[in-house]
Amino acid sequence: MKKKTWFIGLLVLILIGVVGFMWFKQNEAERKEQEMVRMETITAKQIKNTFADVTEIKFSENYGENKLTGYTEVMVTVSTRYGVSSEIGVSMSLNNKSKTLRSYDGGSEFEIGTTGNKMKVTFSNGTEVSL
Q1: Domain range for residue 82?
Q2: Which pLDDT tens digit goes with each residue over 71-129?
Q3: How far apart are CA 59 and CA 45, in angstroms?
Q4: Buried (b) or exposed (e) across 79-93, using 16+ Cβ within 10 A?
Q5: Sheet (strand 71-80) strand order
Q6: Cα separation values, 46 from 25, 91, 103, Å
Q7: Does the reported pTM lie above 0.85?
Q8: For tag attachment on the chain, is the N or C end more exposed, with fewer CB atoms within 10 Å?
Q9: In the chain, how many domains are there?
Q10: To 10 degrees, the CA torsion angle through 100, 104, 110, 111?
Q11: Start-end of H helices in 51-129
C-alpha cells in the first residue's frame, strides 16, 4: 500500500513539474514577442527623428540576435511621401535611449531630418500602429 501511495505522489509531482515547465516556456515566448515590439517601437521613433517625410515603416519577420552585445539586427523597409522606398539594416536594443537612429546600414537615399506627420508602422509580428 505504501509503494502505491509513493508511486501516485511521485507521478503527481512529475505531472506538476511538466505542466509548470510548459507554462513557463509559453510565457517566455510571449515575453520575447513583447520585448521585440518594444524594441521596434523605439527604433520606429528613432527612424522618425532621423529621416524626413517617412510615411511607412515595416519590420522584417527575420532578425538576428547578438547575445554578446545585446543588440538585435533587423531589416526595415522605410517609405517616404516622395515614393522612395528602401531597406535599411538596423541594430536595436532596449537600452538604446537615443532620440535618433545611430546604428544603421543603408538609407543614403533618404533625406536627413525629422518626420512631423503620423506614419504607419508594421511590426515583425504583423501588428500595425500609427506613430
Answers
A1: 2-130
A2: 888 999 999 988 888 899 988 877 777 788 877 888 778 888 888 889 999 998 888 88
A3: 13
A4: bbeeeeeeebebbbb
A5: 104-105, 85-92, 71-80, 54-66, 120-122, 128-130
A6: 32, 11, 10
A7: no
A8: N
A9: 1
A10: 30
A11: none
